[in-house]
Request: fold
Amino acid sequence: MTFVQLIDCKTSRFDEMNRLMDAWVEQTRGKRTATHNVIGKDRSDASHFVEIVEFPSYEEAMRNSNLPETDRIFRQLVELCDEMPTFTDLDVVRDEQLYTANARRLFELIATEGELPQFDDLIAENYHDHDPANAQDTIGRDAIRREMEMWRGAFDFAFTVEDQIAQNDRVCTRWSWNGTQKGEFLGIPNSGAKVTMDGVTILRFQEDGKIVEGWWEYDRLGLMQQLGALDPLEL
Reply:
C-alpha cells in the first residue's frame, strides 16, 4: 500500500532548508526509497511549509528513515525550523491521477454511441491538435469535435488503453483501435471491413484539468492498406 508522510514546519530560513534538501537528495542517490516529493508554502503564512513525501509502502519509508544520511539531514532541518516540525503518517486509501483519468475519459467518449458530447468540461475552447495526417493543425474545440465526427461517420470503433504515463501537465497514452467501416472515409467507399490500428497520443492539460493540446501518432498507412486503398508493396 502506498504510504505518504506529511512534514509540517515553520521556518524563516527556507532558502537554507531548500539547499539542505538538495544535499539530502545528492547524498542518498541510489539509496532513498521516496518516489515523489512536494513542498508547499502556506499562502496566508509565508513561514509555514508542508512537505509531502510519497513511498511505495510504509516499510520502504522506514528503510528511508533509517539511512544515516536521512538522520543527519533531519537534525540539521530541525535547527532551521522556528519550532519542532510535526509528522503525519498516512496510508493511501484512494489515489486518483486526474489528468490520466481525463485522458482515458476522452478515448471513451470519442467512441461512445449516440450523439457526441460537447466536451465543454473536458476540452479547452482554444484546443490545439497536431495530427501529421492533416495538412494543417486543428484549432478549437468545435473544430476537433468535427474531426471526431468525421471518424465516427466512417467507422464504428473502440479504443483500448494499453499504457499511460503522466508527467507534469502531460499524459502519454499508448492505445489500440478496432473498428468496422460503415461509411465513406477519405474517398474510400464503405466496405464493411474490420480494421485495427495502434497509436500514441500525448495530451497537455491546463490547471483546471481540461485538455488544451494534443499530439497524435498512428498507423494511418496500415489502416489505408486494410481498407484496400493501398497495395502492400506500396507501403
Notes: The chain has a mean pLDDT of 91. The longest helix spans residues 14-27. The CA atoms of residues 12 and 47 lie 6 Å apart. The domain at 3-91 is CATH 3.30.70.100 (Alpha-Beta Plaits).
